[in-house]
Amino acid sequence: MRGVDGPVGKKPVHVRSFLNFVGGITPVRVPWRPPIDKSTVREFKHLALDVKYQDCQIGANDVPRIMLLRENIYDLLRSDILACRFAPGDEMREQDLAERYSVSRQPVRDALLRLQREHLVTVQPRQGYRVTPISLSDARDLLRFRLALEPACVAEAIESAPDSVLKSLDEFRRFSGDHEDFIAYNRGFHSALAHASGNRRMATALCDLIGQADRLVRVSVSNLKGHDPAKLVAEHVALIDAMQSRETRTAARIIKAHIGATEKRVLPALKRNAVIVEERSS
Predict the structure, then answer these.
(1) What is the 3-state secondary structure (H, E, C) of 147-183?
(2) How far apart are CA 147 and CA 256, in angstroms?
(3) Bridge partners, residue 13, by sequence
(4) Per-residue pLDDT tens for 87-104?
(5) Are 28 and 1 in contact (CB under 8 A)?
């Protein structure tokens, strides 16, 4: 540890006193120095980024980099689960994931704990983790929650969103691509509806539902006649027309029917699919 001199006319300031004042930690025992006042803290606050420890050094750019690393691993792992690159029920181990993403085990562990809170990963004591299987009850719960929330977002958007926001939905009037492209298109459209509401809390909740429903959308699209998503795109276009015309009742009817049709496609398909698990006990 090294001391830090105060400004001219001030008593010398030691790093320990500075860290104690701003709520930091003291890795080694150091001699006591007089406490510093708030003005000195403001003048030397930047020095906290240059404190050197006995075995390591933390620089100004390290914290953002560490946070970015953890966020990236979370996003990658979540995306792989929702894209079914990790199939429902697959077992996962921290070491294998760390090697897959070329990182240490700590950011992998952090990501898995976040995904556990989202019910996408299940912890198996002394065995590791596994991708939470899709169950009929969870699928039904998710779709019913969406049925309550998404029409509310659409109504808010019709009532409060400026014309420019509703006009921006035109980019979703057309779609071309394969099934994976449709997953991204569909997520983008429903996320745009959420944000068009202008209600941050509702938008956050709906976007979370939409992300978790990606696996269900895959089942839904695979259950379409001819595997052609054109019918779903046509439903999106009808909803855009109603919203841009500020027709609240028509829009509500379309979005409710749209989600209801998804449920009718998804639940029977799940019953025939090996990735589902038994209904949860009451």
Answers:
(1) HHHHHHHHHHHHHHCCHHHHHHHHHHCCCCCCHHHHH
(2) 6
(3) 4
(4) 888 899 999 999 999 899
(5) yes
Interatomic CA distance for residues 155 and 153, integer angstroms = 5
DSSP run (H or E) holding 259: helix 248-271
CB 151 within 8 A of CB 236: no
Distance CA 166, CA 170 (A): 8
pLDDT band at 273 (very low <50, low <70, confident <90, very high): low
The whole-angstrom separation of Cα 93 and Cα 60 is 33
- Containing 135, the helix (H) or strand (E) segment is strand 134-135
Q: What angle do CA 153, 176, 206 make, to 5 degrees?
A: 20
β-bridge partners, 130: 91, 122
DSSP state of 46: G
Residue 130's H or E segment, with its range, is strand 128-131
How far apart (Å, rounded) are the C-alpha atoms in residues 203 and 64?
26
d(CA 74, CA 263): 28
What is the reported pTM?
0.64
Spatial contact of 128 and 232, defined as CB atoms under 8 Å apart: no
The encoded tokens of residue 159 equal 């009532």
Q: Which residues contact 72 (CB under 8 A, 6 or more apart)?
A: none
